[in-house]
Amino acid sequence: MIQTVRVAVIGLGNMGRHHAKHWHQYSGAELVSVCDSNRDRTHTYANQYGCQAYTNYETMLATETLDAVSIAVSTAAHASVALACIAAGVSVLIEKPIAKTVADAEQIHAAGGGVTVMIGHVERFNPAIVAVKRLLDTGALGTIISINTQRLSPLPSQITDSDVLLDLGVHDVDLVSYLMGASPIGSTVHTNDSHRPGYACHANIALEYHQNQSALIQVSWAHPFRQRTATITGTQGYAMVDLSGPSVTQYSDQNPEGISVEIVPGDALGAQIAHFSHCVQTQQTPMVTPESAIQTLTVLI
Asked: CA geometry: angle at 41 spanning 40 and 44, to 5°?
């Protein structure tokens, strides 16, 4: 078994820099190198974390001995970078969504049999989601009837190659299916592009599941504030979840005013990286597989 995971980060933008920080801090890994097409940025982080700097990931893969990489490049480049890493025998943690298209995602899935491939649906590791999943698993709410979510934010100037479905929608489609314990059997997506013509900036997503279960998801770049909330209606109770708080409040006929559910504090990205690292070391199947990520992507494009 690998004792210390030798890891690199490819892409040092909005998410990649956080990956680099967490890998540097994680005791079970060694951050060997970072890579970004921006030379100054790459050298800044390499100097900060005491690792090697590259501006070409193919050169890095040919030069360094790596067990794993975090891929945090633009969504359109996910497939090409991931396939190169997999071909080099390197496990990959790919930022969500898995790829720009289902065809690209299926290529990653088909190629990844010999290494660990995990998709970074980081909200599964959010302490509020961990707490409400534990609550659901005890049967405290009975059988889930419906889940409603809202994920709202201002228009992000740094995202120019994607839309609200692939930026925000992937989080909640994945989360709802994770909490339901099933994939949707039907879906309807309505979008609006008034804030950035040609790109969906607001969307309502309706999902259907077996046993007459359903979900309504609202995602938007058309709001002046950030909101990350969910409500879960069950046959024996109700839960309100604030993913930003984080907090979970449970309601029932016996407790109509609600009681707070215990949440264990933690950092979602740090927990995700620790889980992925463990999977690389033990060859355990990761929590978010290419198959589940493809199912999520299929709903949205």
From this structure: 85
Q: Is residue 74 situated within a structural domain?
A: yes
Q: Which range marks the domain in which residue 228 is found?
A: 124-262
pLDDT at 112: 84
Q: State whether 232 and 141 are in the same domain.
A: yes
Q: Is residue 12 part of a domain?
A: yes
- Indicate whether 76 belongs to any domain: yes
Q: Which tokens hold the place of 219?
A: 């995602």
Q: How many domains does the chain have?
A: 2
Together in a domain, 196 and 233: yes
Segments in the chain forming alpha helices (H): 16-25, 39-49, 57-63, 78-87, 102-111, 127-137, 164, 170-180, 268-282, 290-300
Which residues, including other chains, have CB under 8 Å from residue 257's CB and lie 6 or more apart? 251
Mean pLDDT in order along the chain per 10 residues (301 residues):
92 96 97 97 97 98 98 95 98 96 97 94 98 97 98 83 89 98 96 86 96 97 94 98 96 94 96 98 96 96 87
B/e letters for 100-134, b = 16+ CB within 10 Å, e = fewer, are bbeebbbbbbebbeebbbbbbbbbbbbbbbbbbbe
Q: How far is CA 214 from CA 123, 144, 150, 204, 280, in A?
A: 20, 9, 15, 13, 35
Q: In 221-256, where do the E strands start and end?
A: 227-234, 238-242, 247-251
pLDDT, residue 193, reads: 86
Q: Is the dihedral of CA 275, 279, 284, 288 positive or negative?
A: positive
pTM: 0.94
For residues 230 and 155, state if they share a domain: yes
What is the distance between the terminal CA atoms of the chain, rounded to a whole angstrom?
39
